[in-house]
Amino acid sequence: MKSILALAGTMLLTILPAAAQQAADTGAPAQSAPVLTLPQSIDEALANGDDNRLLRANLELARSQHAENVSRNSWGLGGSAGAGYNLPGGDSGVLNAKQSSLSSITASTQGAQLGLSAASPLTSLSVTASPWAPPVLPLGTTVAGSAGDSYGFLGLNVSQTLWNGYPGGPTQATVDKSLLALQGRVISTSSGQLNVVYRVKQAYYALLTAQENAVVTRQILDKQNGLLAQITAVYKLKQASDVDLKTAQINARSAQVDVENADHGVRIARIQLALLMGRSPDSIFTVVQPEAQAIPASSLQEAISLALSHRVDFQQLELNRKSNQVDLALARGQATPTVSVNGGVSQFVDYNLKSAWLVNAGVKVGMPILDAGAAQNLVDSALKQDEIFSVQERQLQRSIAAAIQNDWEAMQILNERTEVARLAAENDDLLVEVYRIQNQNGTASTQDLLTASVNAATAHTAYVQAQANAQLAVLQLLSDMGY
């Protein structure tokens, strides 16, 4: 087990260091292309990549929405000013009798009036002042006694809701849910950034593998061209057949096509990494071998335990459960009474400096009588949703454990395959030399030598691919563990 883990920990360092120096695009020599490290690639992607910009923009949007909800749940201050005059007609006796109630039935302010109010979702406070409020009379008439005098007044009114179904009121519930949503967005942003890093690593190693493949294919091309020259020389000496020469030519041409395909792979891999970093697709650069990706677990059970404690999925699920608890409290509050109190004081002063005051206080209780079961249905829905969250948590634990087990075993298998591919490539190189010597001694045919050379080329290509698969397996394990 320790040998397998050691191999996994060093797998990302097994590619030949010559790759970054040799496998440049055909239009840009390696020695002239800037070299990019993995940390630099990650930093660029997080700073300039469109994916992370979207994550940051969505996070800022969530913060703005929460700030808006907090503002709506805070105090507001307003003021007003107005002036008006009501000119009636008809019997003045009627006006005299109804003078005290006219102010409540007229549409316009009688005289000048100023107002200042402060309000929150559960509390309101208002101050009203009128320096001049004449009686409502037809022109040329007066009301006998003090009622005919103009007057001024100053009033203060306060209203407070003590309970309406949720501590702090429905707007406080909106703020609570908004805060949970913001916390969820912070978590999802962190998770999204981890995914960006994972994708950058994938693209980086894909380019590194493409560079190594370009190196290998060029080495194979050089060998096939050398073998073709050897077969051609032997053919001219009448010691090789037409089939031998044709096979050597086909092998050389196939190797040339593989080089062209490898160069294409380098270009595409570089474009994909450039886009993730927010660069132009035409950017030219090469990558180098990074440090080994350490696996923070020495056993499968430890890897599962770390994943269960490190994955943000459970944090998001817990926030969803808390948000549902707010919904449950609101639902239960709909079946409770609403209680509010109000009060005020008004001072009246006429222009003879006579004054009077009025103090008022009241309480109001509202109780739902019949709602056709709506409140209870909301309660039942919230309780069932909480049960669903519990099931989702158990399901998530099992799925993560299964994914980690699959990744762990796949990593072990692919590491072993990489070692087998390395041994096979070395063995096929030895076979080529054996057949070369035997061919020179006349104990092996030219076709045997050509077949061995093709097998060696295939083995080296397979070794490069095995290395790439092992690298991806390590990255997938780290990603599923939440790293």
Would you kindly provide a written description of the structure presented here, covering whatever features stand out?
The protein contains 12 helices and 8 strands. It has 483 residues and is an alpha+beta fold. It has helices spanning 2-10, 19-22, 38-48, 50-72, 92-97, 99-105, 170-236, 242-276, 300-310, 313-333, 374-440, 446-480; strands spanning 35-36, 76-84, 111-119, 123-133, 151-163, 286-287, 338-350, 355-366. The protein is elongated and about 140 Å long. Helix 3 (38-48) packs across helix 7 (170-236) and helix 11 packs antiparallel against helix 12. The chain has a 6-stranded antiparallel β-sheet, with no helix packed on it. Strands 1-6 form a two-stranded parallel sheet.
State mean pLDDT (0 to 100 scale): 86
Would you report the number of β strands?
8
Which structural category fits the helices and strands? Answer: alpha+beta
- Main beta sheet strand tally, sense and closure: 6 strands, antiparallel
Question: Span from first to last CA?
Answer: 22 Å
Number of helices: 12
Shape: elongated
- Helical proportion, percent range: 55-70%
Instruction: State the low-pLDDT regions, or none.
Output: 1-30
Strand content of the residues, in percent?
Answer: 5-15%
Give Rg in angstroms: 42 Å
Lateral strand order in the biggest sheet: 2-3-4-5-7-8
What sequence of helices (H) and strands (E) makes up the elements? Answer: HHEHHEHHEEEHHEHHEEHH
